[in-house]
Amino acid sequence: MRAECTPPAPRYVASVSYPRSGHSMTVRIMRRYFGHDFRVCEFYHDHHGDCCDCFPCINSSINLTKNHDFELTDPNHPGIPKVKSVPYLVMVRNYLEASVSGYHLFLRRNPDTRKSWKRYVEISLPHYQRFIQKWVLSNDSIEKLVIRYEDLTADPYRVLGEIASFFQPGEQLDTARLGQLIDSVESEDSDAKRTKLVKGRGVQATRKIEDFRHFTPRFFRNLEKELTDEFSALGYDRRYAA
Fold first, then answer.
1. Domains of the chain (ranges, CATH numbers)
2. Percentage helix, strand, coil, to 5, in the chain?
3. Does residue 170 carry a pLDDT above 80?
């Protein structure tokens, strides 16, 4: 009688995500899909005693670490290095929605004014441009899986299946169990005061930028013009600058 083969533990993947691109939700699903075999470290957030404080991680027991490459906010800083031996999960989002979502976190330390919103854009827009140029458009030779938030929320079964398979290349995917996890996962609601988890809402996009307090078609049209190259390469339509 043949012994049942145990699939290998998920390999280590370095996650480089633009803020508000679905990383936290993805981690919740991957943790439940892989179970105790899946360990995540956010070294900049919760320094545990055994943390190597490195990105990519050098702790062989870790399967995923996250980084936003915030060093790119400095135009003279190249950001975190790319390591050719490490597979990368790169998560991105349309800047318009990402900026509105990120601004609500910015408000936890800043007043909600038109001036604050413009200041947030002044900081985050160059970071977004450098992030996309470096991690998506750069002609490098690293192994990477690029995920758009819009694809993650529009077709979560396919996209999260691709992500799970990226951790276990060549292994058969349990699509039924993964689908159940996707349907039941908590989603985040974030505002200026707190982030709360909403149970059982599944994977979906819930925010409309037209409802944003500081939304004006003209301002967002100018943002799209600033991002013409990035949006074209990522396949994002220009909704206000067309």
1. 13-234 (3.40.50.300)
2. 45, 10, 45
3. yes
